[in-house]
Design goal:
It is built from twelve helices and 29 strands. The chain is about 25% helix and about 25% strand. The protein has a seven-stranded mixed β-sheet with strand order 12-27-28-29-23-26-13. Strands 21-18-19-20-14-17-22 form a seven-stranded mixed β-sheet, with no helix packed on it. Strands 5-6-7-8 form a four-stranded antiparallel β-sheet. The two termini are about 25 Å apart. The longest helix is centred in the first third of the chain and has 16 residues, at about 50-65.
Length: about 550
């Protein structure tokens, strides 16, 4: 089981082991006077998630630190699963996070060169065409304790391999009928070096090259070649590629590449209550479990953006968790802490009432209405104020009234006096119920001498609650989100069947001006964003970004 960490790992971003390695390469002039050059290489087979955000921030910020360059390169070597929708979404995600690439590139840009390099390996006796099926290749590959067995086609002549590979390119064979394999060592302790497949047949239209190709390079062959052609100095990968590094180096050494890139691996992000398998996330989308890749419950960057997270908060989170060689589990509470930290000084507050209870102020004139002054940000006087209507009939939050109060409950209950935020002291006198015993309304009285800002100091009350004016209240819809995944008794992630709760609420009239994508703090409830897809001029739908209380501890 992964060790849980709440903030930085032992090797932190301010003492980044990758940057330490780069510093040594610079000191030893491994790459001469060349600029430090990194790349972010997503496969366009799904939307990026928070784990990719860590890699984006690391690659681009590393280039920025060394005044170097970073490419955005799509590793589009598997046309069966790839789509231009994903290409466009990934570009948008990288830009939204605040980064710009030096070049926008595709692995498919190099298909001609990769084919030439494959031919070169054949001519050097380092690659051969194999007729074995995928299952048979796997069977003969061996195990971690047993060496593999050579293919019966391993010793084909160079000329025969060249002819067969060219015929593969011409489309003369069916999918899976033949593959091109590197000829390395079937007894290698590293299974990845046991004559790996480097080209396979796929009669599939490619999103970028159309029908030009029916053979495609495998990622482990394409990856080092792409890096080398682009002049990448440091190829930063997640830890699962560590065992693939010998193959990465073998490809470039076999091609006699001068000053080849250096592959460095780091631990990928693991987050509590979160699944980051693109295959699983795609299944949630395809099966209609979520609204789409940008469902606010999804850990995708698109989902986090629609949920209301800011690029600043995600970059802060990625910096806090650091860069490590050891796998660990980060508490999602840290991510939530980062968005609170970012939004707190930025967003204005509004009064919104959930589970409303009607208040009738019996001694307030029926035909009177006034405006009271409410600060936009309680901790920032420079943010100004707004005027909010107040009259005889109001709504308060359901959680702000208890008919039989518990100990230390200082809000509204029969006989108790509280301050209505920005307005007056209010005393609850009577609880009016319907025939079924449900609370219909509360009859209260107000003290006109106690208006906020008047300087009244005759007495104090312990509770202050928010409210909205019944006549001018705006009905809004709120989508309250819980984690998409919960942990079961074995510590495994399972789908949370109750990850969203949609409720109706009442808001002060200024909420009518909320634009899609605008964020607020709803007084005593949390931080919210007007949903970018569902909010219109006449209908306001808000997603809860995060509640106000943080469970994360430094």
């Amino acid at each position: 089981m992964l060790k849980k960490t709440e903030e930085k790992s032992n090797e932190q971003i301010d003492s980044n082991f990758i940057h330490n390695m780069i510093d040594k390469d610079i000191e030893n002039q491994v790459y001469g006077n060349r600029d430090i050059y990194t790349r972010f290489p997503p496969e366009p087979n799904g939307y990026l998630h928070i784990g990719h955000a860590k890699s984006i921030c690391l690659n681009f910020s590393t280039a920025q630190k060394y005044k170097g360059k970073c490419n955005l390169r799509f590793d589009d070597t598997n046309p069966v699963k790839e789509d231009t929708e994903y290409v466009e979404s990934i570009q948008g995600d990288v830009k939204w996070l605040g980064f710009n690439w030096k070049k926008l590139l595709f692995a498919s840009d190099y298909f001609d060169k990769m084919y030439e390099f494959a031919v070169e390996l054949i001519k050097k006796g380092k690659a051969f065409v194999c007729d074995l099926s995928a299952d048979k290749i796997k069977e003969l590959r061996g195990t971690l304790t047993q060496p593999g067995k050579e293919s019966p086609y391993r010793n084909r002549s160079i000329q025969e391999n060249l002819e067969l590979f060219e015929n593969m390119k011409k489309g003369m064979f069916a999918d899976g009928e033949k593959v091109l394999r590197a000829k390395i060592d079937m007894s290698s302790p590293n299974i990845n070096m046991r004559d790996p497949v480097i080209y396979r047949i796929a009669h599939t239209k490619h999103h970028n090259t159309g029908d030009k190709w029916c053979i495609y390079p495998m990622y482990d062959f394409a990856h080092p070649i792409e890096d080398a052609i682009e002049g990448i100095t440091h190829s930063i990968c997640t830890l699962e590629f560590e065992d693939h590094r010998p193959l990465y180096d073998w490809v470039l050494k076999s091609l006699n590449w001068e000053m080849p890139p250096r592959q460095i691996e780091f631990a990928r992000l693991n987050l509590t209550n979160t699944v980051m398998s693109k295959r699983y996330l795609k299944a949630l989308v395809d099966d209609g479990v979520v609204e789409g890749w940008d469902d606010p419950r999804m850990p995708t960057i698109a989902g986090l953006r629609r949920r209301g997270y800011t690029p600043e908060s995600i970059r802060d989170f990625c910096e806090r968790i650091g860069v490590s060689k050891a796998n660990s589990l980060v508490d999602i509470a840290l991510l939530e802490h980062c968005i609170r930290e970012d939004l707190n000084p930025k967003v204005e507050s509004r009064m919104v009432v959930e589970n409303p209870i009607k208040i009738v102020i019996t001694n307030y004139p029926e035909d009177k209405s006034e405006e009271v002054e409410i600060e936009n940000k309680a901790q920032d006087p420079d943010a100004g104020v707004r005027m909010v209507p107040f009259s005889r009939e109001l709504y308060v939050d359901g959680q702000d009234f208890m008919e039989v109060p518990v100990k230390k409950y200082f809000r509204l209950f029969p006989g108790n006096e509280v301050r209505f935020k920005g307005a007056y002291f209010i005393t609850c006198n009577d609880v009016i119920k319907d025939e079924e015993g449900n609370i219909k309304e509360l009859h209260c009285t107000y003290d006109p001498e106690t208006k906020s800002g008047s300087g009244f100091s005759g007495r104090k009350v312990k509770g202050t609650i928010h409210w909205v004016d019944a006549k001018t209240a705006v009905k809004i819809k709120i989508r309250e989100y819980d984690h998409l995944m919960n942990e079961d008794e074995n510590g495994e992630n399972v789908l949370n069947e109750n990850s969203v709760n949609i409720i109706d609420a009442y808001a002060e009239p200024s909420i009518k001006d909320a634009k899609a994508g605008e964020r607020y703090q709803f007084f005593r409830h949390g931080y919210y964003i007007a949903d970018e897809k569902l909010t219109t001029e006449s209908s306001k739908v808000f997603n809860r970004i995060v509640d106000l209380k943080s469970s994360w501890k430094k």
